């Protein structure tokens, strides 16, 4: 009979302790073994019966449950993420080994095993590296000498079924050594899997044979193709997960800067350098000891985060989503600081670690490149040497061009002249060069030279401004400057927001990433790349006198985030201190400070105010003061919104900004404008008429007369065309029409509704959406001259497939018809909406205000609170219950926060001036915002189906 599996003779790859992690306090192997033996002794078939198997399964489940509970407790005690992963792998090893030995001793006993019946059970892939997360797949290779035997098949099947019944996800393959070699030669995934192998149980000589042949027949002479394959896989993986390490909901395993990037480094290291540890990479001169420590720190932190995520969710959850972030932050012991929540401090640490992973990747690739250049043989090496021959850069001896990348001339260029730490970026921008990894590596190692002397050096500041305002690609050079740490040290206030995330659903990136992306948008505007999308801003940019202040303002507009005071005011204060250092004069400094302090004013006015109300335009003009500042603010606002994240900018917002600009321009110029309001309306009507040229002329003119003038100034032309086709197809005798359109890219669905106008129309439409659990991201309301209203509801998408999303939208349209025909009561419809999550991740303090100064004729109600399905329905229903008439509504959603503004009058058309009534309005709407489930709009009652003139068909 085969003896028990031998003790491991070598450590798993990349576990640098030299031995397996001990299982003391986690699993008593001797007790487990004796328990299994006792089951076999009690069973008449020696452990092969169904009853015995059930006992074995229960014993193993209990052992694993106890072991994992202890490992989780130890993770809290010592905080060792990598140690936790190694403990989990060791626990898994022990369990598999005991199952294997039990099967051979008791379930399938055989006294005389032939050489062909030998089998080795190997851990491969991530498990073969000696690490596992709680939810990781268990990747096993059943290694055979020749072909599968009956005994081997029985043992493998017994083991696999027990593991599956225990709840493990097991990936497995059964192969001979010959098959492993043949498949590894043709498949890089299999090659990588075998590269990380670890004997769990069985015949050690098979493992040794596989290793010998794998080294000689697969690895030898194939380093370059393996490196190319792994780096190519990494690029594809990064593209799938967002291609940035600064997404606010990162993928800890697969995302850029995550564990897989570290794994890729080690796969390449083992394959190319024949090493199993970072210490060996230090000895090979690839990493310094500091960089090796950085590698261990990053790996340990990422493993801790990943293990905690799996323990919390009970599954292989790799995306660090908003709902997980607060709990992981608490588990890791982060505390809140003034201006930063505990979760924001945790995520800042996460992104700094991800940044370190990127630095290590660049350093490693530089070493690979250098070694490959040295070892390239014969003519190939000579050609490579010619191609990479250094080329001088005019005006400097400190740097040269190496294969179209700027590189340092020697190890002392920064120590000899610290200004070179800024000059290198200026030269790269001037000559349109990328950066050699050796240069970036030396910059990082020289970062302490960026001190107060360099910050106050006038030449360094002038060079920095040249980089910031580079006409070709300032984002690239600022990004490299940020990645190596120079930008944050040269501008310490910028350094404070590096890797800082804002715990909300509106901002898609960290603060520093958002600022760099806004610079990229401005640069694209200057180059004319966005002329079709934002023609007005593109037109402004070429004639701007204050190009440098605009770039500085964009770089700094969010630099004071994370402080207990308003970031716009604090940012302006920072600008007044920093701009003179950068070389800006007093006028430019004040302009930058103003742009930062008011950088949100234009977007808020455009989206949250009635642009047809003259008071709105006058108040905004008072803030802006001059036409030049209006143009600058317009450009800055466009860049800011477009850099927030995918889908945030849209044609509707662009049209609102254009309208606000065009309405404000004559006020600032004393009545002079390139085109009066009347001319713009006439031009907009003509543009729509041209797009509807295929219509009969009388029909076209009748349609154009349906809309009030403000429609032509606020709705984008593409939307106007769609509206026209929709309204045209709606028959006059059919008072209610609906249309659905999905938008996968922006993850929204649009529902257009054409119905008789009515004071409660918006409330009922919102209620119909809420009844289906739909969340309204935006709403556009247009009243027409024939007494009908065109309302456009933009909903957050719920389903991935368009077919499912369209079906949901049709249910909403059915709800609308039922409500407007009086066949359904709003309270009944809303009672069936989906329940909300009990715990709110984003506490947004409700705020309600009634303002009589924002409009001369109307009262303005502004409500701000946590968004939820049904909120707009509840708010508008409450406004109707308060006997108020909504004249215009402006719906804005910023991630989890909603800011809705309603221009209202009482039922006789006057402002709300009574303090008592204002207090009652504010109290009622505050209750709506504070209610987790809303007030169900129970008082919204249709007195008659004929109230909307929509018959019940």
TrEMBL record:
Function in brief: Modifies, by uridylylation and deuridylylation, the PII regulatory proteins (GlnB and homologs), in response to the nitrogen status of the cell that GlnD senses through the glutamine level. Under low glutamine levels, catalyzes the conversion of the PII proteins and UTP to PII-UMP and PPi, while under higher glutamine levels, GlnD hydrolyzes PII-UMP to PII and UMP (deuridylylation). Thus, controls uridylylation state and activity of the PII proteins, and plays an important role in the regulation of nitrogen metabolism.
Q: Which InterPro entries match?
A: ACT-like_dom_sf (IPR045865), ACT_dom (IPR002912), HD/PDEase_dom (IPR003607), HD_domain (IPR006674), NT_sf (IPR043519), PII_UdlTrfase/GS_AdlTrfase (IPR013546), Polymerase_NTP_transf_dom (IPR002934), UTase/UR (IPR010043)
One GO BP on record is: regulation of nitrogen utilization
Needed cofactors, names only, are: Mg(2+)
Q: Which UniProt keywords apply?
A: Hydrolase, Magnesium, Multifunctional enzyme, Nucleotidyltransferase, Repeat, Transferase
Query: Which CDD domains does its entry note?
Result: ACT_ACR-UUR-like_2 (cd04899), ACT_UUR-like_1 (cd04900), NT_GlnE_GlnD_like (cd05401)
Q: What's the gene?
A: glnD
Q: Which organism is it from?
A: Aurantimonas marianensis
Span of domain HD: 511-627
Q: What is this protein called?
A: Bifunctional uridylyltransferase/uridylyl-removing enzyme
Which Enzyme Commission numbers does its entry carry? 2.7.7.59, 3.1.4.-
Kindly state which reaction or reactions the protein catalyses. Answer: [protein-PII]-L-tyrosine + UTP = [protein-PII]-uridylyl-L-tyrosine + diphosphate; [protein-PII]-uridylyl-L-tyrosine + H2O = [protein-PII]-L-tyrosine + UMP + H(+)
All copies of the ACT domain together span 750-825, 860-939
Stored PROSITE patterns: ACT, HD
Activity control note: Uridylyltransferase (UTase) activity is inhibited by glutamine, while glutamine activates uridylyl-removing (UR) activity.
Family statement drawn from the similarity comment of this UniProt entry: Belongs to the GlnD family.
